[in-house]
Each structure stands twice: as C-alpha cells, then as structure tokens.
Amino acid sequence: MVVFYLGFKGKSINREEIESIKKFLERISVFDIQNRVEINNDLNNKGEAKEYADFYFDELELEELSKIIDYHNLNESKEQQLINKLRLVSIGLYSNDNQYDGVFEYSIEIDGVMSNQILVVYTDINGNINHISWEC
Questions:
Q1: In angstroms, rounded to a whole number, what is the distance separating the alpha carbons of residues 5 and 111?
Q2: 79-136 pLDDT, tens per residue?
C-alpha cells in the first residue's frame, strides 16, 4: 500500500494546476524508477542513501539483517541489497506558491513492519529530483 498526500495552499486551484497534477499522477511509476536510479547513484557516491544503509548495519543484529539481506551473496554489496529492499510507502504533492513539489518516501520492512527510518526523494512536479534526505 502506498499512501498519497495532496496539499493545496489556497482554497481553489485552476485548470492548469489540475492538468499538472493529473500528469504527475500518471507518471508516478516512471518517477519511482528514476528515483531508485538516483538513490543507487547516491549510495555509490556515499551520500544519504549510504548513511541510511549504514544505520541499519550499526543498529540491527545479524539475525535481523539476515532476514533482510543475503550475507552469502557475493555479487552485490550488503548495502546495495538493503537499498534494493526499499519500498515506496508514501507520495506527497504539495503546493508552494502555485508550484508543486513531489515527496517520495521509501522505507524497508523489518519483521513485517515498515521502519520509521525513511529515505526521501524530493522532486518538482515534473519529477526532476531536487535532493535525497534520510529522515525519521
């Protein structure tokens, strides 16, 4: 399940804004793919995604981590395996002076529960990525 938030600044929106929102919604799957590519780039460049993955290796016990990643997999780093487990949990589209910002929140599941640690990809309404942030 993915939760979607839509925030408006004013009491009404015009036809152009409605069309922009509609296009955004139609392209969510494209944005998700592009976001994941950028998250992987961020991991490789030792950015927020790397810090996000490292947090779990510092905080979780080996037994818990073994339920998430395969320590015997020599083809992928353990950090990459963890990042590959990210699930899109929520999407927000928020008005900011007649422009809209997209917010894509990703997390991993631990023992059947989504973690409160999230990796967030901020975009504009066209899906252009502004930055990635690790939040809780």
A1: 26
A2: 999 999 999 999 999 987 768 899 999 999 999 999 999 999 999 999 999 999 999 8
Say if CB 49 and CB 42 are below 8 A apart. yes
Residues 133, 118 contacting (CB under 8 angstroms): no
d(C-alpha 121, C-alpha 134), whole Å: 9
Strands 3-7 and 113-114: unpaired
Q: How far apart, in Å, are the Cα atoms of 19 and each of 16, 23, 94, 119?
A: 5, 6, 15, 28
Distance of CA 62 to the CA centre of its chain: 25
Rounded CA-CA distance 128/14 in Å is 22
Query: What is the rounded distance in angstroms from the CA atom of residue 122 to the CA atom of residue 125?
Result: 10
Q: By the 8 A CB rule, do 87 and 113 touch?
A: no
Q: Are 132 and 122 in contact (CB under 8 A)?
A: yes
